[in-house]
Amino acid sequence: MAAITTLRRIESPPLFLSLPSVFTNPPRSSCALGTRYNSTSSSQWKRRQVRDVFVHRAKRDCLKSRAGFKLIELDLKHGIFRRGQTVVDLGFAPGAWSQVAVDKVSPGGRVIGVDILPSQPPPGVSTFQGSMKSVGVRELLKKFLMDPERGKMREKRYLRKGDVDEQELVEIERDYLDRERDIEREEKFGGAAGFGEDDVDVGMERPVDVVLSDMSDPWPIPALTYRKSFDNVFIRLMNTSGIPVQDHAYSIDLCYTALSFAMDVLRRPGVFVCKVYQGDQEDELRARLELMFASVCCDKPDSSRSESREVYYVSRGLVKGVTKEKVFPEGSY
């Protein structure tokens, strides 16, 4: 039986307000969040953005959106990432989670993002545009993942001090600090989540270490509507319908889609992270996660808005011998 831990919201100030930067290696790309189109309905959104400290920090740290802080907080609490891992980010647009993942698993790791909407990928991320409900998209993604060199970030190596500039020397120093950080994380969270050598997958049949799912059901594009505004990922994916039952049902369906994919590619021990909007089907989701993983934690990060119904499940340690027929007896996924 899986051990389930529910983590409640911390009442102390957010963890990241005192941190100088969220990145080990700050990106060199432009630092801009998405543009919001002017309309009467967006005035409340604009006022909230002005007051939101995480929005300002995202701009400062060159994050694609404030959602990146949620993953940073989850990683600090649960030790999701290690250097050199393979990470699949489902619903990656606009790319903040992928940015964080790249920083955590480089050098030597790889991050693959998938989204149904067109979006410019962050540096270091390989992406697919398509629906995870499509069998064809899943098969293409699996084929890509089976080659361990595809999408892999290369580690920089230097022979002489004169061969590098000051910025590259800083990166080498950080590499040493990263190794120290990895040792500390291994001691805190454990390297194999209590699994023996026989239970750890080392081949490419299961090539993925972490599956992230921050998927949301995109708004449909109405007929006779100016398409550019609705194709913008910041508009179509950063909104809910306002109907809690509908948002909950859609999020549960997407979680099951991600979970089904994770069962095909996630190695033991692996980590599965999914977002869900709370509702009456949440207990069923929790029960399915219990069947599949050795430990399951429910968390609501401090960077998640208090009025939001979203929570995140962090599941670790794929149970040996689990089958889709056992987790999804109805056969829908």
Describe the structure.
By secondary structure, this protein is of the alpha/beta class. It is built from 11 helices and 8 strands. It is globular, with a radius of gyration of 20 Å. The two termini are 23 Å apart.
Structural class: alpha/beta
The CATH topology turns out to be Rossmann fold
The outline comes out as: globular
Helix content: 25-40%
Query: Mean pLDDT, rounded to whole units?
Result: 76
CATH-defined architecture: 3-Layer(aba) Sandwich
Helix-strand string: EHHHEHEEHHEHHHEHEEH
What's the Cα radius of gyration?
20 Å
Number of helices: 11
CATH classification class: Alpha Beta
Q: Uncertain spans, ≥5 residues at pLDDT below 50?
A: 4-20, 192-198, 233-238
Give the total of domains.
1
Features of the shown structure:
Rossmann fold, alpha/beta, 333 residues
Report a brief summary of the structure.
By secondary structure, this protein is an alpha/beta fold. It has 11 helices and 8 strands. α4 links the parallel β2 and β3 (110-115).
Write the layout of secondary structure elements.
Elements: E1 3-6, H1 43-51, H2 53-60, H3 68-78, E2 86-90, H4 96-105, E3 110-115, E4 125-129, H5 135-146, H6 166-189, E5 208-213, H7 227-231, H8 233-236, H9 244-265, E6 266-277, H10 282-292, E7 293-299, E8 310-318, H11 324-327
Parallel strand pairs: 1-7, 2-3, 2-5, 3-4, 5-6
Antiparallel strand pairs: 6-8, 7-8
